[in-house]
Amino acid sequence: MPSTGGKTDNPFLDHAFFLALEQSGCASARTGWQPQHIVSADADKPVGMMPLFLKSHSMGEYVFDHGWADAYERAGGNYYPKLQCSVPFTPATTPKLLVPSGDPAIQAALLSTAQQLADQRKASSVHATFVPEAEADLIASDGWLKRMDTQFHWFNRGLCQLRRFS
Questions:
Q1: Which of 21, 40, 75, 84 is most open to solvent, judged by the fewest CB atoms within 10 Å of its CB?
Q2: What is the pLDDT of residues 91-137, one digit of tens each?
Q3: Any bridge partners for residue 45, and if so which?
Q4: Which residues pair with 35 in a beta bridge?
Q5: Cα separation values, 112 from 1, 3, 21, 26, 27, Å
Q6: Strand duo 53-55 + 82-85: pairing
């Protein structure tokens, strides 16, 4: 995870951002975004984290799986609740297996724990959305299905300049 002076350089991965979402009630059971974050620790020191939410709907994910939900329900199952590994209301690609050391064993443990949590919470599935390609490949290598979709990305290659008007 990129950092500057020990602090992430991605505002969507900052603890303060998640804390604001949760303390304000934006990410809560009432809004269908019940926090279920997984933290891996070694001797009480966090070594990995996976932002995870128990969802009762698909709103605010910027991924449209309503067709999947409908098909699942018509087949006799309950699509909700589901577990969603994402940044609420934020369609920005960011890492979701937050392991500063990059240790694949810790990443695998986070994925395994998410699957166990899905069983405990009687969730239909676990979804990880808007992840970098390398992370998507890692997750797929753990046996998860890889969603294929089209996204449009804008990259600022230094061509735009902010101008200050006085």
A1: 75
A2: 888 999 999 999 999 999 999 999 999 999 999 999 999 999 999 99
A3: 42
A4: 53
A5: 20, 26, 26, 27, 24
A6: antiparallel
DSSP of 76-122? T----SEEEES-TT------SSB-TT--HHHHHHHHHHHHHHHHHTT
Q: Residue 157, Cβ neighbours under 10 Å: how many?
A: 6
Domains in the chain: ranges and CATH: 8-141 (3.40.630)
Q: With beta carbons less than 8 A apart as the criterion, state whether 103 and 49 touch.
A: no
Q: How far apart are CA 60 and CA 28, in angstroms?
A: 13
- In three-state secondary structure terms, 13 is helix
Q: Are 98 and 48 contacting, i.e. CB atoms less than 8 angstroms apart?
A: yes
CA-CA distances (angstroms) from residue 37 to 68, 140, 162? 24, 20, 37
Q: pLDDT class for 4, splitting at 50, 70, 90?
A: very low
Longest dimension (CA), the chain: 63
